[in-house]
Design a protein that fits this description.
Number of strands of chain A: 11
Structural class of chain A: alpha/beta
Oligomer: homodimer
Largest sheet of chain A: 7 strands, parallel
Largest interface: A-B, 40 and 40 residues
């Protein structure tokens, strides 16, 4: 058990926790809490840390934990004795509190390897890497891509990942100035979808949209000035949706890349929808059309 | 201008700001910021307060403000000289900072009268009171109701109000243990829809659902065990959707009140959707069916 913050591992962990650049250079990110840790594909766990009190508590009630977290057993070894032998490091509670990013640490912290994705992953043509399966079945799918332009709210981005997985989107493309997916609040609100939905950041969003079009994908921009309602278009073939910034919508130079502007009809005096809501309405319309 | 926190008005304002019960007894709530203040129906403003620096700034650039906030002119009189004569109270910046609920006060705070709604309002059969018009047109609508069971997240509730207005829902019914609509974070995230979408809290959710059914409305529960997909049902007649708590879903005693359990088909390993996303998918399906 590590009881001192001057331990070399703890120093490195603090550096990773504090500096985005350090995490990026190491190709890792940090995940906290037993719920989220249970979602990590085991082969991507670089290092697992648990607090002393978590270790004691869970060791004595391994069965309860297994019930509470359902599939947790896949992600976190529940026998903490074997964990500490097998690689998880136990930290004294004060040391754990020091390395945790949260006010009320939950006793589990993992350093996780980042996964690099290619455009082929985003389009869903690389089923080996895609994790979007249910009950072990991988259904072949037409590309269904969400393109985010300067999205800023961490909760929105997390919710969009979660919704994208459920709606069967094949992947996400984000402009470099979107909020960082590795922001702890984003990670939490993905509810684990961040481990399963392919994504990539790009410095050149118009260029990436050009690649989509070259791959035969029809690109729709959700826009207040769209001519057709979103449900008047056909999404059974490969499709992509451009979603803009919360306050300002899509940038003009991104909008012009679309094949077609669509609008989500709105009643009342609302001027716009929340970005995650707009994305959800569009992505589930794809699912609806492809099912029927 | 008020410069002392021992002023009687300021004492009363602090009491309202701090105590939910005081606000409830007075039948008011508090709205902050110029953006939200501009959404308040003028006849419901009990009292408007502005900070000294806001008054000075906006007085000298009334035209800019009118551009920046668009329809703001309806809600906030922009000539602050006439405002202070006409009823708005100017507070010194330190006093304003004291009464504000936010870390960086925006200089506008309104005490707003609560609006009581009846079941007839929720069903949209009382067009005089409904504010859900666009361009002055009131379209006659079949009832389209959202019923929230123990919803806890302020951001979710605000987003649901905003989405409900845009999707053309006629009203919301909330169990008493839902998060308080008058919570400042909820108010903000409604983007003004709280002033326009009828709602009521009830101690007896099953009883309220019974009233909906007696009014000929078909009641659907969004449920993981639903038999039909949500898009296989017909929402052209009066309809209501039951949406449950973020972590636990619908309570059994509420679920059994539904005429029909429906599910939103999900791919991947996601276990559930965010409550506001689920509500959005269902409400926009109603709009889609009613348009086509």
């Amino acid at each position: 058990m590590i009881t001192s913050t001057s331990n070399a591992q703890i120093k490195e962990l603090l550096r990773l926790q504090k500096k985005g650049r350090a995490r990026e250079e190491a190709g890792v990110f940090i995940v906290e809490g037993p719920r989220m840790a249970a979602e990590i594909p085991p082969e991507r766990i670089v290092k697992l840390y648990v607090s002393e009190s978590y270790a004691k508590r869970e060791h004595t009630s391994a069965v309860d934990v297994s019930c509470r977290y359902g599939k947790a057993s896949a992600g976190i070894p529940l026998n903490l004795e074997s964990v500490s032998l097998g690689g998880a490091e136990v930290l004294s509670d004060p040391v754990f509190a020091r390395v945790s990013d949260t006010k009320t640490p939950q006793g589990v912290l993992a350093v996780v390897r980042r996964q690099e994705y290619t455009m082929a992953d985003i389009l869903g043509v690389n089923p080996d890497k895609g994790e979007n399966t249910r009950g072990g079945q991988q259904t072949s799918r037409e590309p269904h891509v969400l393109v985010l332009d300067n999205l800023q709210d961490p909760g929105n981005l997390g919710t969009i990942f979660r919704t994208a997985e459920a709606a069967g989107a094949t992947g996400l493309i984000l402009s470099r100035d979107c909020v960082d997916i590795y922001n702890p609040k984003v990670i939490r609100s993905t509810m684990g979808a961040v481990f399963r939905v392919p994504f990539l950041y790009t410095d050149d969003l118009p260029g990436a949209i050009g690649e989509l079009k070259a791959a035969g994908i029809r690109v729709f921009a959700a826009h207040l000035e769209g001519e057709n309602a979103y449900d008047e278009e056909d999404y059974c073939g490969g499709c992509a949706f451009l979603i803009g910034n919360e306050g300002n919508g899509l940038r003009d130079e991104v909008t012009v890349c679309a094949d077609c502007l669509i609008r989500i009809p709105m009643q009342g005096q609302t001027e716009s929808l929340n970005a995650a809501v707009a994305a959800a309405v569009l992505m589930f319309e794809v699912g609806r059309q492809r099912r029927s």
